[in-house]
Structure to design on (425 residues):
């Protein structure tokens, strides 16, 4: 790992991209400390199992600080999911855009941002109204004040998307992901401080002391290793190349068809969170009693709700994997390239075989993803640690995934630069 970073720093272009990205992230963190207008200086402490805390994590925002970036890029992420689902042969116009190359992708992104603006205002209004009723944070409560602050939040989200575009084009890439990454990582020191106080502070609630804190740190590292293994693990199906298609290859030359055990990444957790958020947001506008009922029902300290949440994550893992990985297309591509799986006939048998293997490994991926997503609530219930500082969770999956993708992106840029230099000689 150290050698990789040394290679990055030796390359002038990569070094500039890294520094540019750090400057953009500094601007993001600076904006996260600017309070939104019309908000009192009331200290907000969100429950770790609350709807708002989930929205804050998934969007990389800072709802507790009620800053201009409180929503993070959450509305855009939600809009992306909605548009992606609608483009799966539900709305023909969107489906056509997905097949139109770069121009189609630009149109899709423009539509996604428009939908994100609408969702940002809706989510912002919901958050301000809810926190105003709970904490009295708004100086002049009322529809106009709520709408004004929600527009400020939405403007902050759109500015963050512009910053993310700058990171993507002039920085290290993965702009939106890095914004979320920075929001989650910025909160980690506070979480470690909270755990340290729990074990070693003046008002420690645990008798394990420093040993307990060290065990926590070791387990934290172990969870990161587990997430890394989950992200990179894949099932390699052996395939053979026909000599009639590639004469330069030796007869029987072996290759592999890689299938990741977690093709869906963290998307199922986001899907599950969005499905839980929707009814609560609607209920908060329709009836206060209905909202309170749903809030109590959707409580992560409730074992029955944890089971329901786990089933949602597992179901969405299979759903999204089957949306993004097409065994039929794989079988067709193998046939066109003159490749085949040993012992399996080309065509429908290949498609059925790939589907069977994909479903089997997705079972393992879904179980691991669900385990990591539920771990904070399980650990908190067993040890008494605060849920927001407990091990695992959606935040860890996002942080590790983004870090790995960023390293891969930088490696690609470095390799491309070296290749161009070689050709230039």
């Amino acid at each position: 790992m150290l050698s990789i970073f040394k290679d990055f720093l030796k390359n002038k272009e990569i070094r500039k991209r890294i520094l540019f990205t750090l400057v953009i992230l500094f601007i993001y963190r600076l904006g996260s400390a600017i309070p939104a207008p019309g908000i009192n200086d009331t200290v907000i402490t969100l429950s770790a199992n609350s709807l708002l805390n989930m929205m804050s994590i998934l969007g990389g925002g800072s709802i507790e600080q009620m800053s201009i970036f409180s929503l993070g890029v959450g509305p855009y992420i939600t809009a992306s999911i909605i548009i992606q689902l609608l483009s799966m042969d539900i709305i023909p116009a969107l489906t056509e855009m997905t097949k139109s190359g770069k121009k189609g992708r630009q149109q899709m992104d423009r539509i996604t941002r428009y939908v994100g603006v609408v969702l940002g205002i809706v989510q912002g209004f919901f958050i301000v109204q809810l926190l105003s009723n709970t904490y009295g944070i708004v100086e002049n409560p009322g529809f106009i004040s709520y709408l004004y602050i929600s527009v400020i939040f939405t403007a902050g989200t759109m500015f963050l998307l512009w910053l993310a575009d700058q990171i993507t084009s002039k920085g290290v890439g993965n702009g939106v992901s890095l914004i979320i990454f920075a929001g989650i990582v910025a909160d980690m020191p506070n979480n470690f401080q909270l755990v340290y106080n729990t074990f070693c502070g003046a008002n420690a609630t645990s008798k394990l002391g420093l040993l307990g804190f060290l065990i926590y740190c070791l387990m934290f590292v172990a969870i990161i290793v587990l997430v890394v293994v989950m992200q990179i693990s894949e099932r390699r199906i052996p395939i053979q190349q026909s000599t009639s298609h590639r004469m330069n290859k030796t007869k029987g030359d072996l290759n592999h068809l890689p299938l990741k055990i977690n093709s869906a990444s963290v998307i199922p957790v986001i899907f599950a969170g969005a499905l839980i958020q929707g009814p609560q947001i609607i209920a908060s506008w329709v009836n206060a009693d209905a909202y309170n009922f749903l809030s109590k029902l959707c409580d992560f300290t409730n074992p029955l709700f944890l089971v329901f949440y786990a089933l949602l994550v597992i179901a969405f893992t299979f759903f999204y994997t089957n949306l993004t990985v097409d065994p039929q297309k794989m079988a067709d591509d193998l046939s066109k390239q003159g490749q085949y799986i040993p012992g399996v006939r080309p065509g429908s048998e290949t498609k059925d075989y790939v589907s069977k293997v994909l479903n089997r490994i997705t079972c393992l991926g879904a179980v691991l993803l669900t385990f990591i997503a539920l771990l904070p609530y399980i650990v908190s219930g067993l040890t008494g640690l605060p849920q927001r500082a407990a091990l695992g969770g959606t935040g860890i999956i996002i942080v590790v995934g983004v870090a790995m993708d960023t390293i891969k992106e930088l490696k690609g840029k470095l390799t491309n630069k070296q290749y161009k230099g070689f050709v230039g000689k």
